[in-house]
Amino acid sequence: MNRAIDIAAAVRTGQVRASDIVERHLAALAADDNRLVAVTRVLAERARAEAQQIDATIAAGGDPGPLAGVPYGVKDLFDVTGLPTTAGSSLYADAPPATVDATAIARLRAAGAVLVATLNMDEFAYGFATINAAHGTTRNPHDLDRLAGGSSGGSAAIVAAGLLPFSLGSDTNGSIRVPASLTGLYGLKPTHGGLPMAGVFPFAASFDDIGPFTSSLADLAVLWDVLSESVAEPIETPLRVARLGGRFAENLDPDQRNAIDAIAPDAPTISLGDVARARAAAFLITAFEGGAVHRAAFAQGQALQFDPATRDRLLAGALLPDAVYAEAQAFRATFTRALEPIFAQYDVLIAPSAPCFAPTIADPQVLIDGVATPARRDLGIHTQPISFTGCPALAVPLLRPGRLPLGVQLIGAPGGERTLFRFAAMLEERGLTGISPPAGAFQGED
């Protein structure tokens, strides 16, 4: 695969120009001709200008940053200077252009990364499938007849195909972890509020977070340093691991169950409490807050400009009583407090990320409790209750060469992202997890 740290090292030492790196990736995107339906806009002019600035900095003896010359893309809900922020909807295709970049993009640019594209998503991030009425359905590079997951499907597919070294997505109820699992990547949902949300189109503020997709843990660690503006400190203490039971031990692929057995054969199985009620409360909070974002559009008679599958759920959310929302938030506070003794005892909790490998586009359903249900709704059955807690969660790909990807999620205490990176590295060293690129993935060479 196309590692960001390797590209940056080559650019910083003068082995290759940032401009050449950008041209290679622009050519690869053009050759792909959006067969993945992952890209909504290619930002060639901006990318070339940013790359030229990096080359000029190096020529003058300056430091272009730890991500020097690394191309990347962002989910189509980040503000990009000069472009309307559409959030995947035709409703905002002609909105006034953003006047400044989202804070996350600004931090990446300061570190030398080069923005190349905006990427497909479920409209307003409301779904787990990236089935978009305006742009089409994003395809999984491991099998073009299958979903890439969502709502950050474009961000996942483009990295899994090797067309960009990393991307940014957003995760409200699993929208990074689900597509990471289905496309075989690392995907991080940070501690709620752990990364800057300024300049990101909102869905449900109680759960919205941004995070990266990468094909390597080393890239993920560097991106965390840049995006969080933090510095790693050495950690030597042994890690205490548990696995989640109850609903997390149901509705998962047998290979996931076997992988969890191998990852933590002696770890205890613990319960998070009433997980089904937590997911129901998360649905209510998401619907209420999502509906509130779009009440003005509905009041102005713009409802027919929404994707029908999105519109009906947002309208229903806008009609929820305040008392129901307050009750769901009260339960959330109780549920979250109950985690404190668990994280006093354990550093990492293990659970499946998506319940299965990628469903087909022709029949986008998953089996939940033996019943076929819409993938757009239920691919997040295992991720949504974790978002409810605000805890960080890292989707980790199981090592499955030649087979459709599956993943597990590693869950930590608030602020415990680096602990998750550390445990994930241990799993890689044991040969249990890692990237299995799809056939024909772009490698970044000439």
From TrEMBL:
Which keywords, in A-to-Z order, does the entry hold?
Answer: Hydrolase
Give the Amidase domain ranges.
20-420
Q: Which InterPro entries match?
A: Amidase, Amidase_dom, AS_sf, Carboxybiuret_hydro_AtzE
Q: What is a single molecular function from GO for this protein? A: hydrolase activity
Gene3D superfamilies named among the record's database cross-references:
Amidase signature (AS) domain
Q: Where is the signal peptide?
A: none
**What PANTHER family is this protein classified in?**
GLUTAMYL-TRNA(GLN) AMIDOTRANSFERASE, TRANSAMIDASE
Q: What is this protein called?
A: AtzE family amidohydrolase
Q: Which organism does this record belong to?
A: Sphingomonas glacialis
